[in-house]
Design a protein that fits this description.
The protein is of the alpha+beta class. The protein has 2 helices and 7 strands. The strands form 3 sheets. The protein has a 3-stranded antiparallel sheet with strand order 3-6-7. It has a two-stranded antiparallel sheet with strand order 1-2.
């Protein structure tokens, strides 16, 4: 039983490391997009032409739509990092691969990453974590720096994984900014 516990901890540490690597790669995609287009991808679907969506996971869906747009010539997200955790689509979208699904970039636990662009730091976003009967919607806002009281990554964007427990706002969250010490 000690071996099983040890292997489980080792596997979980590997998923945490993979999550951090995904965040770094997604950051590179977003920065490349901003250098080509002149601004970060929006965290709402409306500016990208999507009219049909359930407004759940909208920030990360908007990021994927921007990166998969037929008129965008930059790098696209890794296919095995994509998921459809809330099942919505928009038949009016023109994505490079011809799909209409509003996909999310997902973490190693198959929960959507939270993406909020700096222009939307005052807005609330609904995200769904978990699957099936354990799925739970959470309302999230941009993280605030406790020292300055300004949003984290003030001139950029925020990326967040709810971490191994699948609950945002707990001690195991992983982000592209410094997380305050939180209660689990």
């Amino acid at each position: 039983s000690i071996l099983v516990v040890s292997l489980g901890r080792h596997a979980e540490a590997g998923r945490v490391a993979e999550c951090k690597a995904r965040i770094e790669q997604i950051q590179l995609l977003v920065e490349s997009y901003a250098s080509r287009v002149g601004d970060y991808p929006p965290s709402h679907l409306g500016p990208l032409g999507a009219k049909e969506n359930n407004h759940v996971n909208e920030g990360i869906e908007a990021l994927v739509v921007a990166l998969k747009a037929s008129d965008y010539a930059g790098r696209r997200p890794e296919g095995d990092w994509l998921g459809d955790t809330d099942g919505d689509k928009d038949d009016g979208l023109r994505l490079a691969d011809g799909s209409h699904a509003l996909l999310e970039l997902v973490d190693p636990w198959d929960d959507p990453f939270v993406y909020i662009a700096n222009g939307d730091y005052r807005n609330e976003f609904s995200y769904r974590f978990g699957s099936g009967s354990t799925a739970e919607d959470h309302t999230l806002r941009a993280a605030i720096n406790p020292l300055t009281q300004a949003p984290q990554e003030f001139e950029g964007f925020q990326l967040l994984s709810a971490g191994p427990d699948g609950l945002p706002g707990t001690v195991d969250d992983i982000a592209n900014y410094e997380l305050p010490q939180q209660d689990s």
